[in-house]
Design brief:
This protein is mainly beta. 15% of the residues lie in helices and 46% in strands. The strands form 2 sheets. Strands 1, 2, 3, 4, 5, 6, 7, 8 and 9 form a 9-stranded antiparallel beta sheet that branches. Strands 10-11 form a two-stranded antiparallel sheet.
């Protein structure tokens, strides 16, 4: 969903944010009937809004904080070391915002899982030696000062383009299935 990197002398740090799960995206058209293509464009713009204004602080700690201009709330539940040089911080992200567009109002809500992957790549090309069972603590001890020196990192959004929208609501408020027997393809 978003990524950033920082070169801090002898270490390059890469931060990647991933979201996994499903969100409910509802579009309320200003005027009926609304063109399906225009509604899809509004929906995709709203989804891309989630990627804007993402900031990470506290990279040198066991609990980095993620801020979002869209108001998404991130709650960390743990972290896990991925050899040889990545720490993955995971948890839940609550999303709830509305955005106006030329077609109407788009509302995005839901709770998804997130993973904030922080990778430290030494410039000397040497991969860290296997520190055995204490690898997580060794990773923090090895990179905490470099990571703390970053302060705040602004993540750049990676465009979201879902393969398909899975449902729509008609003018009468009734949910329409994404596929029909006559047309066995997703809503465009």
């Amino acid at each position: 969903m978003a990524t950033a990197s920082a070169d801090i002398g002898h270490v390059t740090v890469r931060v990647d944010l991933f979201l996994t799960g499903e969100l409910e995206v509802a579009t309320t058209p200003r005027r009926a009937p609304a063109e399906t293509g225009a509604l899809r464009a509004c929906t995709l713009r709203a989804l891309r809004t989630m990627c804007r204004g993402l900031m990470v602080t506290g990279l040198g700690s066991y609990t980095p904080a993620i801020g979002s201009a869209a108001g998404n709330r991130f709650a960390q539940t743990g972290y896990q070391f991925h050899a040889p040089n990545t720490m993955a911080f995971g948890g839940r992200c609550s999303i709830s915002f509305a955005q106006s567009c030329e077609c109407g109002m788009v509302t995005v809500t839901g709770e998804v899982l997130y993973s904030l992957d922080v990778t430290a790549l030494p410039h000397n090309g040497r991969m860290p030696e296997d520190d055995g069972p204490g690898r997580q603590n060794a990773w923090f001890l090895r990179y905490e000062e470099e990571l703390a020196s970053i302060g705040m990192l602004v993540l750049a959004g990676v465009p979201i383009a879902p393969g398909r929208l899975v449902g729509a609501t008609g003018r009468d408020g009734q949910r329409a299935d994404s596929t029909s027997p006559e047309n066995d393809s997703p809503i465009p």
